[in-house]
Design a protein that fits this description.
The complex is a heterodimer of chains A (102) and B (326).
Chain A (H helix, E strand, L loop, with lengths): L5 E11 L3 H10 L6 E5 L1 E3 L2 E3 L8 E8 L1 H15 L5 E10 L6
Antiparallel strand pairs in A: 1-5, 1-6, 2-5, 3-4
Chain B lengths: L2 H9 L2 H14 L8 H26 L1 H27 L6 H12 L3 H14 L8 H7 L1 H11 L7 H13 L1 H28 L3 H19 L3 H29 L4 H12 L5 H9 L5 H36 L1
């Protein structure tokens, strides 16, 4: 029996933890049914991002959505969030089980 | 004791030595690191304990003794950003967003500086009004509101655009915990304090030492950002607390606080926020560069205040009392 995997997009965002409430609203607004948020640390083009206190903490958000929603989400991130927050956004092609959950 | 002796004694006290140890740990890139959750837990403990004890003190003193100094504290918090903004804009030549953001940090207050000041007064044997933590609670928000309005000067800010900053200014975790714990302490009074003193009173000063160790590492990791701040902000980080502290001491004396209470109001006026203000300004003025304000507030003003400021503000409080009351 072949495993029923379906193509889907994963939108990933690393950004400031302070952006979290606004981002959660955006994800819901774009029809995203679920997402994962992970505390993140690392370095970028502007140097190390220290995540030792909540005020400078960083997060990695992963949201699995269909291609249409992914486009809408990325467009709004680019327009509404990137001018305000330190942020890296990328999209990955993935395959999922149970596509109705996304 | 001369001022030099007092500063030397303060530098050799456990909290300041632990703070220095934390800075050294960060500078030598030691792997010493508190988990973020532990840092948050310590913050919650310190804010709850200080708020609760302040509430009990208000219960004992009565609101009639508290309102006048509290009003002075609110006014200081609202007025300090005005002159800070003007100085940062003109001689400092900083853009409006950065000037407003830094003004918010300096008008708002640092709870850890306040707690270290209480610890300092206790060890120096100087009595103070226990309800002073009410000043801490009311001084966080006004500065943020004033600075956000300054950043929008020339435009008509809508309530919608100010909402995230107002939310952080009045309902952010530090203000909510402080005001909430003050109310709990005020309602439960001295019998309530007796039932929780095992947690909130006895271990308090040990926890401060531990927290300052962590603050040392947090500060040490940001010392590199001072290069971005430049000489003007370096000087501002020291001159602003000196001026604000003196104004705070004058106000404290004028509203009838004791020397200890005056010193605490001076320290609060001199301190710069790094909890409520950064979050609120990041939301309200996203163009402002957070590295500048955090490096100045945490890298310069905070160490200056706890190492040299505390004995200095006590001496200034003694002078203002002598000057205005004799």
């Amino acid at each position: 029996m072949s495993i029923p995997l379906h193509p889907m997009k994963m939108v990933c965002v690393t950004t400031e933890a302070l952006a979290r409430p606004a981002l959660e609203l955006l994800l819901t607004d774009c029809g995203c049914l679920g997402f994962t948020i992970i505390p993140a640390e690392g370095a970028g083009s502007q140097g190390q991002r220290i995540g030792d206190i909540p005020e400078t903490a960083n997060i990695l958000i992963k949201a699995i959505v269909n291609p249409k929603r992914a486009e809408l989400l990325i467009e709004r991130l680019w327009r509404e969030f990137m001018p305000r927050f330190a942020m890296v956004v990328w999209e990955e092609d993935i395959r999922v089980l149970r596509p109705d959950k996304f | 004791m001369t001022l030099t002796d007092a500063i030397a004694a303060n530098l050799l006290s456990p909290p300041i030595l632990f703070f220095a140890l934390g800075i050294i740990a960060a500078l030598v890139k030691s792997d010493l690191k508190f988990p973020e959750a532990f840092y948050s837990a310590l913050t919650i403990y310190l804010l709850t304990a200080i708020g609760f004890k302040g509430g009990v003190a208000i219960h004992e003193a009565g609101l009639s003794r508290v309102w006048k100094p509290a009003l002075a504290a609110i006014s200081l918090s609202a007025l300090i950003p005005l002159w800070c903004f003007a100085v940062l804009r003109k001689p400092g030549r900083l853009p409006v967003p950065d000037a407003a953001s830094i003004a918010a940090h300096f008008g708002s207050v640092s709870a850890v500086t306040f707690i270290t000041a209480v610890n300092y007064l206790k060890s120096a044997g100087v009595p103070y009004e226990g309800f002073s933590s009410a000043f801490l609670a009311v001084m966080e928000s006004p500065a943020i509101v004033v600075a956000v309005l300054l950043s929008k000067a020339g435009t008509k800010p809508s309530f919608q655009s100010l909402k995230p900053a107002l939310h952080d200014a009045f309902l952010g975790r530090s203000v909510l915990l402080l005001v909430g714990a003050l109310l709990v302490g005020w309602i439960s009074g001295p019998p309530g304090l007796k039932s929780v003193e095992g947690l909130f009173v006895t271990p308090f000063f040990g926890v401060i030492a531990l927290f300052l160790l962590e603050m040392g590492t947090v500060t040490g990791r940001r010392l590199g950002d001072l290069r971005k701040a430049g000489p003007f902000l370096l000087a501002f980080g020291i001159v602003a607390p000196l001026i604000n502290g003196t104004v705070g001491a004058l106000a404290g004396t004028a509203v009838g606080l004791s020397i200890g209470g005056t010193m605490l109001l001076a320290t609060l006026s001199a301190s710069a926020s790094y909890i409520a203000a950064p979050a609120a300004m990041r939301m309200a003025v996203p163009e402002a560069r957070p590295a500048l304000s955090l490096a100045t507030a945490l890298g310069i003003t905070f160490p200056f205040n706890i190492a040299i400021g505390l004995p200095l503000f006590l001496a200034i409080a003694r002078h203002t009392h002598h000057l205005l009351l004799s």
